[in-house]
Write a structure and sequence with these properties.
The chain is α+β, with helices and mostly antiparallel strands and 91 residues long. It is 18% helix and 20% strand. The two termini are 21 Å apart.
Amino acid sequence: MFPSASRYHTAATYQAVLPGGAVVTALVVPGPRSPAPIGYHPRAVGDRLDLLAVRYLNDPTGFWRICDANNAPVAGALEARALIGIPAVGS
């Protein structure tokens, strides 16, 4: 259902019944794993997490790993930070 690099790849699912009676499969959203950063990137104007993920993790879809390393639930939560923690490759 999700690619192996996705944070949701191994997430559990459950069945939910909508108000109209339809049954849908829902995802149990995992919390951040919070790996310790191995270094920090000084944020510059125009920095995007997907580009930082390519630069440091060699994975353009790994922005969520940067979010987890910074205890940020969403990418926008890092916009005001002067330093962005970078996790180890593969963490």
